[in-house]
Amino acid sequence: MKSAVTSVVRTASRLRPLAHVSTIKAMTTTTKPAASMATAQVAEQTRSEQPFFPDEPFKPRMRTSIPGPESKKAIEDLHKVFDTRSLNMMVNYQNSFGNYIADLDGNVLLDVFAQIASIPVGYSNPTLLAAATSPEMASAIINRPALGSFPQHDWAEILRTGVLKVAPKGLDQVVTAMAGSDANELAYKAAFMWKRRQERGGGDVEFSDEEIASAMNNKAPGSPHMSILSFRSAFHGRLFGSLSTTRSKPVHKLDIPAFDWPQASFPHLRYPLADHVSENAAEEARCLAETEDLIKNFRHPVVAVVVEPVQAEGGDNHATPTFFKGLRDITRRNDVMFIVDEVQTGVGATGRFWAHDHWNMADPPDMVTFSKKAQTAGYYFGNPDLRPNKPYRQFNTWMGDPARAILFRAIIQEIERLNLVESTAQVGEYLYSGLERLAERYPYEIQNLRGKGQGTFLAWDSPTRDDFLKRAKGLGINIGGSGERAVRLRPMLIFQKHHADILLEATEKLVST
Amino acid sequence: MKSAVTSVVRTASRLRPLAHVSTIKAMTTTTKPAASMATAQVAEQTRSEQPFFPDEPFKPRMRTSIPGPESKKAIEDLHKVFDTRSLNMMVNYQNSFGNYIADLDGNVLLDVFAQIASIPVGYSNPTLLAAATSPEMASAIINRPALGSFPQHDWAEILRTGVLKVAPKGLDQVVTAMAGSDANELAYKAAFMWKRRQERGGGDVEFSDEEIASAMNNKAPGSPHMSILSFRSAFHGRLFGSLSTTRSKPVHKLDIPAFDWPQASFPHLRYPLADHVSENAAEEARCLAETEDLIKNFRHPVVAVVVEPVQAEGGDNHATPTFFKGLRDITRRNDVMFIVDEVQTGVGATGRFWAHDHWNMADPPDMVTFSKKAQTAGYYFGNPDLRPNKPYRQFNTWMGDPARAILFRAIIQEIERLNLVESTAQVGEYLYSGLERLAERYPYEIQNLRGKGQGTFLAWDSPTRDDFLKRAKGLGINIGGSGERAVRLRPMLIFQKHHADILLEATEKLVST
């Protein structure tokens, strides 16, 4: 049975995507950049590396300062209708390819910020382009379903071959959402419903008249005074519930009403780790004790602990597997949910598909939330008791977006085809070693280098961070920051050693002059 | 300069979309249905009507009961990984066309529920298909930007020719979002920031140390005890902030912590309106007085009033322009924001592009939120003071989705091409008249018919509502309910008089047997 959409669109999917990559390649494929100083010896090792995308630009090319004249005009125009005060760079995405981002003035930059850690397999990726021009994508875009009530016939298959194919160990179900913030909020809602059900004795106990009446009035017991515990410097989103668990920066929170929920200290590790082993272990033990004390004693009962494997927005703060295993133990023995927010860490960037894979826990988290590099969002869970006792309790009109779920499936295929998680682990080691050498030579400029063994999810503190980021752009490198003074590296999964060489060379230039 | 994406995808956009609509047409184009009883005389009038889509099925076709055997298998399979207890119908969207929705068992239904009021111009719409297979859509899908920091070069143009082209009168700016819930929450956040700024004397006054420290701790004054006023039976979404303003059904709210925010009574009008003029006027005056009293006296200062032009999820509750103008006056004189939630009413369904256009107010709302039929979401505003005083205060990674904004632009083009708002106004009059005749004959089965003059945004109360909806499916009509006992009609904008005839005929069958 030939469908309406299929008959039209399938021609597009037969095209060989990106048979000719035109502009950018011509603009930037010139001679190999001269390796300098500390990076000279490592560049040698990468000569023989096969690029994932032979048509990718060979190096950055800067024609103007940023923003250049064309970008300035466009920004001024956009500002009339859309707030541009947080604008970093105006981009021509159709001219961007692989690890390289193009602006409106002929500048092409190596991008290790990647849309705030959200581009997984490169700009204008051919595999994704094939998925984006497929008949099923066209139908998903124009026939958007209310998934909870009118799912499409192949939704189970799209989930199984996509979102669920990469589900964390032990978690075999998913609730889909729109972005990281609402993914976290839906997980929180599941935790509240689970705990109240548990308090009622489990099963399908009916709500009391008092609960029903009070809930409609935003009062307890129907709307209970219960809480989610998060950590200092955490970032979990900016809607009202998620913002109540976000503690990274005042600008996120000022003037917005918040729930009276508890925060525990997140470990403040000292670097290099090898020199501060017992001190750091004591710090983690202190934070665990504080967490358990809050769970037992906070004025509003805690139903869940939410934590990022690496606090990203809050300044790239790491903790050891011992800390996270400790959280799992504490939440288990106090009967509260353990939610791991993998919105920024998930989908390969740490050299494992999920960052919490590094912890090697036999007992998995209760829920894991995702977004960003997945290009879709939601939370995984395994415990059947986390399905609410009645339908429509975890529900909304769209419940995610099949178009974006289809894209995530293509992202997973590309990750598998190029073995990108393993590659990211290896490139991360390589990049870390190069940065370590630079940190030895420039200990003031590169402080607290961190992320060893965490793929390319690396960061360091810079006493002149904002200036560093700005000057990096002048050298053709787009880098982001996190917290007050961290330089945050978030390359895509297709970032290779030869890209690392360019980044290391530029970093050396920046810290040495 | 030819871009990478353009060179690949443009072939697709040259195809004539849907040159052959295959399956559905063949399945269902048979003889005209025999008009029966009360609808016989009106069917005559529609003989000469030009269908918008000649290839659309001519009438529903039922092969099995719903769910049929194929659907049952698929539902059982999906349930293993995705909660299907709220499932209404398993759909094959690629076989759905125009006003007709197809399942997996060869059944084709006239759809007047339309994905909970979210499909604007029909399934597999050719104009949307052209947009969905365009090079710019492909790039938007695979190169998703962090819009606040790295907007695409043509974002201003996409907004101006799309989202902003249909901006409500007096509102010339937009903040884009993902869905109705977060659109409302972002509007609430804007209201809180605006009010606190006003309290500080306006301008760019710095935050105090106390505000900064307390906000990080979820405490006042940084996280102020302020509130949003909504109405009984309102629905504004199900995230933590929006859910605190939702008051439609306990199942939405039970077990979820909520803010202590006020609710005022929404008018409870009696029908037919012409027979209860003074009584209804008194009811609206009572609700207005209660609203103003809460604004003046509620324990947590009110910064905004949010209201739907028609309470949809809450049971299709209407009020008159007098009531809404009264709200505008009250909010103006008490210096609080007036937010109109057009998530369900917007984009043409009431016979005006925005439902609040019916109110003919000289002084527009402060913010208008949208989603559903726009297939993207956000809030419009005009007052420059609603832009927060610093960047990054109204910010998140994606800030909407350009792919969906491009689709909204195509939807607007299709609405203009076919003059669908005007058409919906006319078809709505026709449908209302037909229902009015049926209500006269079956006054017990069709009570409180409402929505006259509001396009096809019609509803009535049924003493056996759930049974009515179920039996309607058996006749090949997909209808939704709202509130406890309302039958809610939410046809698409391409719903024509000949579709209305089919709906009227089926309704008569259902209420007369």
From TrEMBL, chains A, B:
EC number: 2.6.1.19
Transit peptide listed as a keyword: no
Keywords: Aminotransferase, Pyridoxal phosphate, Transferase
Top-rank taxon: Eukaryota
PROSITE patterns: AA_TRANSFER_CLASS_3
The keyword Transcription regulation is assigned to this record: no
EC main group: transferase
Cofactors required: pyridoxal 5'-phosphate
GO cellular component, one term: mitochondrion
Molecular function terms from GO: 4-aminobutyrate:2-oxoglutarate transaminase activity; pyridoxal phosphate binding
Pfam families: Aminotran_3
Residue ranges of coiled coil: none
Biological processes per GO annotation: gamma-aminobutyric acid catabolic process
InterPro entries: 4NH2But_aminotransferase_euk, Aminotrans_3, Aminotrans_3_PPA_site, PyrdxlP-dep_Trfase, PyrdxlP-dep_Trfase_major, PyrdxlP-dep_Trfase_small
Reaction it catalyzes: 4-aminobutanoate + 2-oxoglutarate = succinate semialdehyde + L-glutamate
Spans annotated as Disordered: 46-69
Family of this protein: Belongs to the class-III pyridoxal-phosphate-dependent aminotransferase family.
Protein name: 4-aminobutyrate aminotransferase
Species the sequence originates in: Imshaugia aleurites
